[in-house]
Amino acid sequence: MRICYVRDVTQSESTHVQLARLRALLRDMGSVLVCYSGGIDSALVLAVAHQELGVERAVALTAVSPSLPQREREAAAAFARSLGANHQLVASQEIQRPDYVKNAPDRCFHCKTELYQIAQAKAEQWGLSTVVNGTNCDDLGDYRPGLHAAELAQVRSPLCEAGLTKRDVRALAQLLELDLWDKPASACLASRIPYGTQVTPARLQQIEALESTLQALGFAQVRVRHHEQVARIEVPKSDLARLVAPEIAQLVEQAGRKVGFRYVTVDLQGYRTGSLNEALPHRALPVLS
Asked: Per residue in 167-186, pLDDT tens?
């Protein structure tokens, strides 16, 4: 397993130095297949890999499944086109994996295993030496079983190897004038379903439909957590007042009922990543080996 580059946090390091280190890492790989979701992290990896290696030796692969919102798929394709990058959409079948569907706390391991098996096969088919992802150093601090899948598949994480945090990633993307430098964090739709509740296409469609309504209403950062008949909506605390304003609340409630929820609720704690992990005591998390 490769370890993150560690720098002295008391010392200032320019984004230009960080960018040079990332460029050198990718250049030394020779050719890469980028597991590209369209989020800021994998987008930065793709942009720099494309600059350093060119269209033939840096290929983006986006896995398409019911857990990827159409809006995200379209945005990912648009950004890749803006770079002139080679972008391939490939069907992913994690929904056929029983261990993924049952949605235990290690669900992400099974999803990423599917992704990396596809990526390794495509890398071999396309003559690319290394599969890379968009993991950054901040990702190591949360419970992320997908990281274990990457380790087993020998997938490299150039952002992490370069010692880059999420903040660093955004700074580099802004330096490179990438339009999505300030794009809100995104995650697959299955991450909205509590552990122990099966992941089904119908539930994923419910979540996507209600989130699309909220995004159309101007809520850029939003999560619809699926609790059977209840939709629990998370938005940043700064957006809570607007969300519960009568005219907006009525539209959202109607949209929720239209897609099959009986109740539509708002989480007063606001948006935070990994909120479904809050229900898991640390001792309940599986040991991955």
From this structure: 999 999 999 999 999 998 88
